[in-house]
Queue: 2 jobs
Job 1
Amino acid sequence: MDPFAFYALVVDNNPLFRMNAQAILAKAGFRVFAAAKCEDALEILSKRGHGITLLFTDVEMPSGTMTGFSLARYCASGWPHIGILVAAGANLPKQGDLPAHVRFIQKPFNEAVVKHHLKQVLPEQQQPCRLRMALVQDQGVPDFGEPWRSPSDLRNEG
């Protein structure tokens, strides 16, 4: 793993939601690992958890496996440096389902919603540069993209 890269782990048994989350996170600057079930995610975490910055998991998993809620609690206790987002369409979290610092996203989600929640779960030093820049632009801060103009140019405009 590249020590200068930011890594995310996406866990969702639905390939369309998994690919959507992967694309959003890759666009935000993450290198993304993906798993279709929690057991695969646990294997990735056991091998690479020290370098992963973000866990983005669905709640519902195939029968006989742990839920995304359980995975979030396990990850929070074993890898406290990892920011965690949990997504679901129908299974809303109840009191105690999630650790305090975990954020919940309702499905279907879009890029803007995910970026907003990333800002909530990741300290600035754990945010890829592309994500930080997107967040600055979303807040309406000028990007200084205009060409430089001399004082005489400015006087001539008035």
Job 2
Amino acid sequence: MCRYLWWKKTMSPSYLLLSAASGPPPPAASYENAEELLQEMAFSGFKPSPFEFRWLVQAYGRAGAFSEMLRVLESLHESGIALDIVSANIVLSCYRDYGRFSEMISWVRKIHQSGISFPFERSIPF
């Protein structure tokens, strides 16, 4: 039985990715398996939602796999899903957790250039 059929009978992709992204970071292989499952599901006709992509971004970011995190963000963009404030905040928090403040500043600039606004921007002058 292919893994997609197993998934279809046992759990949702959101649950799988949620379990990979929450709690202490598991080995990177767990994220790779979750990503392979998403690809397999897409090949079988299931289109992953922004929710599944975000959880995978967060899972890689929490593990400190930033190149993988950015690669998934790029695939999100290539699939026609625009960067939103939720995804941007996930990236910022992952960089913060690892003390990578220069990358955080680069992301804040990218967010502003893309036209995404933070809800508090109206009340705090920059």
